[in-house]
Write a structure and sequence with these properties.
This protein is mostly beta strands. It is about 5% helix and about 40% strand. Strand 6 and strand 7 form a beta hairpin.
């Protein structure tokens, strides 16, 4: 028996920008952690979206039980993955294996953005846990 195929979908950038949200991310109401994201695009065992980082903003450390592929769109973003620094620029790719603690910050002089693709083949949906300054999981 043949599996049913999915339907191709186009997610136009203009529609994504119109749906940009500046709330719903851990600690996004605190200065230094302000960041936005477009509505998630979900397919079987994967999710993707665009993260926008205004000047001087960052994310708290977090860990996923899924692999993440980062694609730089504009600006410069420094990622810290298990203690190792990676600078992601326009059209650069970075892979973050499942289980790695990572954070990111805008390292440029203007806004920065990237595409994050979360991929999990053994189970779905993936989980995401944020860590405090001591490296402990927080709600």
């Amino acid at each position: 028996m043949q599996e049913e195929k999915g339907t191709p979908r186009l997610f136009a950038w203009a529609d994504q920008v119109a749906g940009l949200s500046w709330t719903g991310l851990h600690r996004d109401d605190e200065w230094g952690w302000h960041r936005g994201r477009t509505p998630a695009v979900e397919v079987t065992n994967a999710r993707t979206g665009v993260v926008v980082l205004p000047l001087g903003q960052a994310s708290p450390p977090h860990v996923k039980d899924a692999d993440v592929v980062i694609i730089g769109l504009d600006g410069v973003i420094d990622f810290l993955v298990d203690g190792e620094k990676f600078r992601v620029g326009e059209r650069d790719f970075l892979t973050v294996p499942a289980g790695c603690v990572y954070s990111y910050k805008n390292a440029g002089m203007g806004n920065a953005s990237f595409v994050g693709i979360i991929i999990r083949t053994d189970a779905w949906p993936s989980t995401n846990q944020y860590l405090n300054e001591a490296g402990e999981v927080v709600a």
